[in-house]
Every structure is written in structure tokens, then in C-alpha cells.
């Protein structure tokens, strides 16, 4: 099914821009998400122990674990934070070498202590923007803020590795970090949208992201939330088209169900709960 999603194209992007102009209700946007990248998610309420934050994280980790089944080489997680995803991958794939990387030395030290019993797992402190790796099999990142997700795409591409990212914090996208620069849009195919990317996509994503909470208000009138999700999707579609241009097969898939609720029945999952997947064509 890779490369089959009609949204991952110039036409798909034009369609998303047209939705911003003519307007779309929240319900219709959710149906669009459903039809385009939620097909594989079981429509059930998720249930885990711990705080809402921990439950949501575990939920996302489980969704990502499903996506990496079948990958049989080294796995590199970038921006591993508290190492929970890295640990879960290492536990499930005990035959693989798993590396967790973060530029925060205190976090890495904690990970080393906490997971020292897990033999196929190492943690390293390094800035992803300075990182160079050999072929890794898979480079993965959960909540790589802003351009960290773009950097992860580049690390995968340079090392000819598969890539899975669940991006976040679009308001933190910068085009230049240290010596690392990327143009937006990233893909050649969307260059005709260059002015829109600079003047609208980044500015509005940032504006809406800073203004609003999660996509859990059931009111149809929250069109600003709808716009935020469409702008985020446009950024991610561009990332996928870029990968496609670099010879990857690409897909976008939801990693968690939208039916995740807390004990009061409040929706706690944002629609920003999908992963971008790139497979090297070998
Ligand atoms: C939002 S947290 C996500 C952590 C973890 N993946 C999770 O989902 O819980 C982003 C992580 O990326 C790390 N990070 C940010 N910029 C980085 C960079 N340039 N190189 C390596 N790690 C970075 C941060 O220290 C932080 O731990």
C-alpha cells in the first residue's frame, strides 16, 4: 500500500490548501483523516495504567512498535528523551542492536541507569544536527520537535536507512540550526507553494499551535483547530513527497486511536497522532 495515498502529491496538497480557503468542518476533517490514514487502527478505547500523560505515551509507543515489525537490523532512536520507546523496542526485538540518542546528557545518564539490564540497548549523548551514522536499518523518532523531525529524515536518507517519525511542535521549525539548513518546502514537487510555506504554513501553524490546546473541543465552530491540523498535515505531506523524491516508498499512518479517553470520557488524543513512514527501495 506504500505510495498509494492520494494525499501525498501535488494534487493532494492543492486539495488541502483549497480546504483552508473554502472551509471544512471538524467532523469532515476527521472523516478525511479516517479514510486517508487511519484504516489500520483498531477502533477501540485504549486502556493503560498510569497518568493520562503516561497512558498517551504508552499508546503512541505501542502504535509505533506495530509499524516496525519485520525490520531486522539496528534501530536508532533520535531524541529518545526518557528512553521509554528505545527500551520497548529493545525489549521486543532482543536480537537487534538498539541505540537511543539525545543531546541532553542528564536524560541519557538517567536512561543508562534505568535500563542498564537491557543488553542490546545503548544510549549516547549527541546533537542530531552533528550526527553521521552508517546504515542503521531503521531511524525512528517520536515527538521530534520542529526541525528535529527534518533532521531525522536527513540522517535516514544519508545512511540509506528506513525512517519512521511521529513529528510534533511545528512552531519550532527553523530553517537553520547550527550548520544544518533545509529549504521549505522540502520537496521539489511543492516548490510552487514556496511563498505559501513561508508566509502561511509556518506562520499559521505557529500561531495556531501557540493559541490552542488539543483537538478535543467537540464544537464544530473551532475552525482554527481545523486549520492547525491542515497546516500540520501540509508540512508532513511535503516531508513525505521529499522522501519519495529521494527514492523512498512512503506512507502516513495513525499510531493511536482517536477514541482514547480519560476516566471522565474526555478525548485526550490529538489528531496529531500519526507517523510518517519511509522505506528505502533496495
Ligand atoms: C519532545 S521530546 C520527546 C522525547 C521522547 N522521544 C518522547 O516521545 O517522550 C524531544 C527530545 O528530543 C531531544 N532533542 C532536541 N533537539 C535535539 C537534537 N538536536 N539532537 C538530539 N536530541 C535532541 C530533547 O532533548 C528531547 O529529549
What's the name of the CATH homologous superfamily? Vaccinia Virus protein VP39
CATH architectural name: 3-Layer(aba) Sandwich
Q: Which structural class matches the secondary elements? A: alpha/beta
Percent range for helical residues? Answer: 40-55%
What is the CATH T-level topology? Answer: Rossmann fold
Main beta-sheet strand count, sense and barrel state: 7 strands, mixed
Tally the helices: 8
Ions, cofactors, ligands: which are bound?
S-adenosylmethionine
- Show unreliable segments: none
CATH class descriptor: Alpha Beta
Overall number of domains: 1
- Spell the H/E element sequence: HHHEHEHEEHEEEHHEE
Key features of this structure:
single chain, 282 residues, alpha/beta, Rossmann fold, seven-stranded mixed beta sheet, two-stranded antiparallel sheet, 9 strands, binds S-adenosylmethionine
Structure in words:
The chain has helices at residues 10-22, 26-37, 52-67, 84-92, 105-114, 148-159, 194-211, 223-245, and strands at residues 75-78, 98-102, 121-125, 138-145, 162-168, 176-177, 180-181, 248-254, 274-280. The chain is α/β, with parallel strands linked by helices and 282 residues long. It has one domain (10-280): Vaccinia Virus protein VP39 (Rossmann fold), CATH 3.40.50. Strands 3-2-1-4-5-9-8 form a seven-stranded mixed sheet, with helices on both faces. It has a two-stranded antiparallel ribbon with strand order 6-7. Helix 1 packs antiparallel against helix 8 (223-245) and helix 7 (194-211) packs across helix 8 (223-245).
Amino acid at each position: 500500500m506504500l505510495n498509494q495515498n492520494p494525499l501525498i502529491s501535488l494534487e493532494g496538497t492543492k486539495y488541502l490548501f483549497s480546504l483552508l480557503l473554502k472551509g471544512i468542518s471538524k467532523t469532515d476533517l476527521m472523516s478525511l483523516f479516517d479514510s486517508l490514514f487511519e484504516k489500520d487502527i483498531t477502533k477501540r478505547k485504549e486502556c493503560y495504567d498510569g497518568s493520562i500523560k503516561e497512558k498517551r505515551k504508552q499508546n503512541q509507543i505501542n502504535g509505533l512498535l506495530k509499524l516496525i515489525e519485520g525490520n531486522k537490523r539496528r534501530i536508532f532512536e533520535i531524541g529518545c528523551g526518557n528512553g521509554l520507546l528505545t527500551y520497548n523496542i529493545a525489549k521486543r526485538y532482543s536480537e537487534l542492536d538498539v541505540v537511543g540518542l539525545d543531546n541532553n546528557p542528564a536524560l541519557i545518564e538517567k536512561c543508562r541507569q534505568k535500563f542498564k539490564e537491557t543488553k542490546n540497548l545503548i544510549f549516547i549523548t549527541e546533537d542530531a544536527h552533528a550526527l553521521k551514522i552508517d546504515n542503521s536499518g531503521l531511524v525512528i523518532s517520536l515527538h521530534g520537535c520542529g526541525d528535529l523531525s527534518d533532521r531525522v529524515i536527513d540522517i535516514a536518507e544519508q545512511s540509506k536507512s528506513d525512517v519512521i517519525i511521529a513529528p510534533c511542535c511545528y512552531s519550532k521549525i527553523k530553517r537553520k540550526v547550527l550548520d544544518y539548513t533545509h529549504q521549505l518546502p522540502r520537496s521539489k514537487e511543492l516548490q510552487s507553494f514556496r511563498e505559501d510555506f513561508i508566509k502561511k504554513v509556518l506562520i499559521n501553524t505557529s500561531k495556531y499551535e501557540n493559541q490552542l490546546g488539543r483537538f478535543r473541543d467537540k464544537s464544530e465552530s473551532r475552525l482554527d483547530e481545523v486549520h492547525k491540523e491542515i497546516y500540520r498535515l501540509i508540512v508532513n505531506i511535503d516531508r513525505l513527497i521529499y522522501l519519495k523524491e529521494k527514492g523512498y516508498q512512503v506512507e502516513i499512518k495513525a499510531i493511536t486511536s482517536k477514541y482514547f479517553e480519560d476516566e471522565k470520557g474526555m478525548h485526550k488524543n490529538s489528531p496529531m497522532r500519526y507517523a510518517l513512514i519511509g522505506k528505502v527501495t533496495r
